[in-house]
Amino acid sequence: MDITTTDLGLVARVQNLSKSYGTDRTRVDALRDVDLGIRRAEFTAIMGPSGSGKSTLMHIMAGLDSPTSGRVWLGDAEIGGMDDANLTLLRRRRIGFVFQSFNLVPTLDVEGNLLLPFELDGRRPTTRERDWIDELEQALGLEGRLAHRPHELSGGQQQRVAIARALATRPELVFADEPTGNLDSRTGREVLELLRTASTRYGQSIAMVTHDPIAASYADRVVFLADGRIVEDRGRSDAAEISRFMLDMEASS
Ligand SMILES: Nc1ncnc2c1ncn2[C@@H]1O[C@H](COP(=O)(O)OP(=O)(O)OP(=O)(O)O)[C@@H](O)[C@H]1O
C-alpha cells in the first residue's frame, strides 16, 4: 500500500517537481527536481532571490499551474490526473489564497468579499465561523470599512481584506504570496500573528512566500530556493540568522 500524504503528516506535497517555461533558446527552468511537503498545522516560509521559483512552486502546489514533470498532492489526492471541476472543488474546500494582486471582487463591499468563500460553497458561516470572521475584522482593523468597495480602500486595507478572506473558512492550507508586502510594520506584525494563530489555534497549515527576514522569523520552518532548487530547509530562525543566510547565499551565487 502507498504511504499517503496524511500518513506523512503533510497537507500538500510535491515530488521530483520540475517546471520549464518556453522552448529551446527561450527556455527557463523555474523549478528543478523539487521535493517538498507542507506539514500539518505548521507555518512555513518560502524564501529566495527574485526569480528563484517561489511563486511558481506555490502556484503548482495550489493546483493553479501544472508541472512539466513530477507529482503533486493536495491532501491525499494526487492532482495530476484530476479534471478541472474536481480540482476547483478541492481548492475551494481546502485552500485559502492571498495573492500579491489581492483578487478582490470590485463590485462587492468588504463584507461581501469576506463572505464570498461561503457563497461559493453554497452556505452561510456557522456561529463559530461568524465569531472568527468578527475576530479577523477586528484584528485587521476592518470594522469601519465593511460597507466599502475595494477601490475605496488603500492598498494595505485591500491586502488585509484578502488575508481575512483567505482565513475566513479556516481552510486546512493557506498559501500567501508576500502577504505583508503592502503593509506598515505594525499591521504587518498583526497579520503575521494572525497567520501564526491560524496554525497554532486552528491547526491550519500556512505556506508563505516572503522576501522579508522578519516575516520569515514568525514561521516554524524556513525553506530557501535558489535557481529553482531547495538549498536550505531549517526550523524556526530569528531574523538575523535568516538575513545572514540570505547574504551568504547571494554572495556565493
Ligand atoms: N509565465 C511565465 N513564462 C515564462 N517564464 C516565467 C513565467 N513565470 C515565471 N517565469 C520565470 O520563471 C522563473 C521563476 O519565476 P517565479 O515567479 O516563480 O520567481 P519568484 O522566486 O517568485 O520571483 P519574485 O521574488 O521576483 O516574485 C523566473 O526566471 C521567471 O522569469
Task: Please characterize this protein's 3D structure.
This protein is α/β, with parallel strands linked by helices and 253 residues long. It has a single domain (10-251), classed as Rossmann fold (3-Layer(aba) Sandwich). It has helices at 54-61, 84-94, 110-120, 127-139, 155-168, 185-202, 213-216, 239-251; strands at 10-21, 28-39, 43-47, 69-74, 77-78, 95-98, 173-177, 205-209, 221-226, 229-235. The strands form 2 sheets. A 6-stranded mixed β-sheet has the order 6-7-8-3-9-10. A 4-stranded antiparallel β-sheet has the order 2-1-4-5, with helices on one face. It is globular and about 50 Å long. It binds adenosine-5'-triphosphate (ATP). Adenosine-5'-triphosphate binds at residues 21-22, 28, 30, 48, 50-56. Adenosine-5'-triphosphate (ATP) binds at residues 21-22, 28, 30, 48, 50-56. Residues 12-252 form the ABC transporter domain.
Strand order of the largest sheet: 6-7-8-3-9-10
Please trace the helix and strand order, writing H or E for each element.
Answer: EEEHEEHEHHHEHEHEEH
CATH class: Alpha Beta
Overall, the morphology is globular
CATH superfamily membership? P-loop containing nucleotide triphosphate hydrolases
CATH topology: Rossmann fold
- CA-to-CA gap between the ends? 42 Å
Protein name: ABC transporter ATP-binding protein
InterPro entries: AAA+_ATPase, ABC_transporter-like_ATP-bd, ABC_transporter-like_CS, ABC_transpr_LolD-like, MacB-like_ATP-bd, P-loop_NTPase
Organism: Lysinimonas soli
Domain ABC transporter: 12-252
Keywords:
253 residues, alpha/beta, 10 strands, 25% strand, ABC_transporter-like_CS, ATP-binding
